[in-house]
Amino acid sequence: LIFPFSLASCFQIKEKKMRKGFALLFLILISFGIILTNSRIAWGSLFLAIPLVVGYSSFLYLIPLSILLIIIIVLTTNPSFKGLIQDQLQLIIPDKIWKEFSSEGFEGMNVSRIGIWLSAIKFILSRPLIGFGAASFPILFELQTGFWKGHSHNLPLEIAISYGLPASITIFITIFIILFLSGKKIFLGTNKQKNFLDNYFEKAWFTSLLILIISQQVDVHYFDARISICLWILLGGLKNIIEQENGFNA
Q: For the CA atoms of 79, 84, 86, 88, what is the dihedral angle to 10 degrees?
């Protein structure tokens, strides 16, 4: 959530060297912090945020970097490349990083995310209109499998289990409409709104919410009050951008 705004600060500040230096320092530290989370969705958010905030020019170095990283991951984790090169790479790259892309990192897991989602869908189909009530998934899942999981690792599924499909569909269609309309205005503004195309913070605002919504499809961070408050602030900001009639005034 913070990374797109930090990225926007580096490109928005053009004259004051000290401010730009501090913005660059924050960007570097936040980037390292994201890498150290050992979260694949967090790593993916780095690559998603850069072209959305900076623009198409970032592809000149982002695509070669992505290809290089994919090659390194394949050489480090694929059994077909077992040997001296793979052993050396596994020694150089921390275990917590390369194991996130290998079956070795998931040994001992009692159930996969796909298994959790399939169970969640079965619960929804058995009571689609009103759901089972708030925080019901852990109880239902433990009764079914004997394993305890705090949530369904997917926010639309979680809401549907608790309150029914109509509630989940209504909420997320509304969010997607706000994302679509605000993205259209920010990235595809008319000639009268060219300042939108150069406004990094509007792009960062959109990107931050997009990353948050994507992350909720594979995990549920929304239960953290800080994350849920951020989501509604970002939604409110995008709604305000949509409603602005005479270009960027705020």
A: 160
